[in-house]
Amino acid sequence: MVDGSEKYRSFYAKLICTAAKLDDPRIEEAFRSVKREPFAGPGPWWLNLGAYPYVQTPDDDPAFLYQDLLLALDHARGINIGMPSAHAYWLGACNIKEAETVVQVGAGSGYYTAILAHLVGADGRVYGYEIDEVFAARARENLRDVHQAEVRTQSGIASDLPQADLIYVCAGAAQPSRMWLDALRPGGRLLFPLAPQGVQGGMLLITRPDRGSAWPAKFVSRAAFVGCVGLQDEEAGRRLTEAFSKDWDRVRWLRLGGLPDDSCWFAGDGWWLSTADA
């Protein structure tokens, strides 16, 4: 059988990696290899450029799926398969290696779960957490032939998360979940949107050190996401909006405990972000 979307995927993968200013053949190959059709569902589809209204495609030609646009899973609720070039950029920042274990929070219909599974390879493992039962069922069906991927229909801030080399979060939060930090192996990375519902925040990349309460951290880019259930805080959102108006790119550390000093960019409950050089 002829693969009708192969030429679209090849162009799309090169396009989004170029847009992400990313020279990583493994990530380009992942986007080239994973078909979007099963994860999008039957067409026509609703597409979105970000801050603009959705536009419906005229039909179900798969060419419409291979665009660098948000692809709606539920356009009425604003739930999407995220912008491909943004995810390519974030995945590049995570430095994913073969045979690693990844926890994904907010799997949706499983598209980026499949991308992550491709990157960790046959000897790796990806656990996709999705609290919406309908999306979780779709993801499980879409990933039925990907043996290294497992979808769990539960909150991604549960206390029984597997030990992971990377936790990749696709839902905005007002703070890093302690469950995420505890699940990281030494040297493990957490990438999550420090961006409560309705806040234009940033993708924060944190690395767990071998010891100590100072964890290397930096913002990879600005970001906005649908909110992560259980990690919302209206007051923190207000303060984060103010904090992001200045010096967000100077953050260097996540500090756990202790009193914030003059290098504090933002302080949460029991944690704070520091701009100190060392």
Q: Can you characterise this structure?
A:
It is a single chain. This protein has a domain at 1-85. It has helices spanning 6-19, 25-33, 37-40, 84-94, 111-120, 133-142, 178-183, 234-243, and strands at 46-48, 55-56, 70-74, 79-81, 101-105, 125-129, 149-152, 164-169, 184-194, 201-207, 214-223, 253-256, 264-267, 271-274. It has 278 residues and is α/β, with parallel strands linked by helices.
Helical proportion, percent range: 25-40%
- Structural class computed from helices and strand pairing: alpha/beta
- Beta-strand residue fraction: 25-35%
- Strands in their spatial order, largest beta sheet: 7-6-5-8-9-10-11-12-14-13
What separation lies between the terminal Cα atoms?
58 Å
Oligomeric state of the chains present here: single chain
- Enumerate how many helices there are, as a single number: 8
Strand and helix order:
HHHEEEEHEHEHEEHEEEHEEE
The average pLDDT value, as a whole number, equals: 94
Low-pLDDT runs: none
Largest sheet: 10 strands, mixed
Short structural description:
With 278 residues, the protein is of the alpha/beta class.
Topology:
Elements: H1 6-19, H2 25-33, H3 37-40, E1 46-48, E2 55-56, E3 70-74, E4 79-81, H4 84-94, E5 101-105, H5 111-120, E6 125-129, H6 133-142, E7 149-152, E8 164-169, H7 178-183, E9 184-194, E10 201-207, E11 214-223, H8 234-243, E12 253-256, E13 264-267, E14 271-274
Parallel strand pairs: 5-6, 5-8, 6-7, 8-9
Antiparallel strand pairs: 1-2, 1-3, 3-4, 9-10, 10-11, 11-12, 12-14, 13-14
Helix pairs in contact: 1-2, 1-4, 2-5
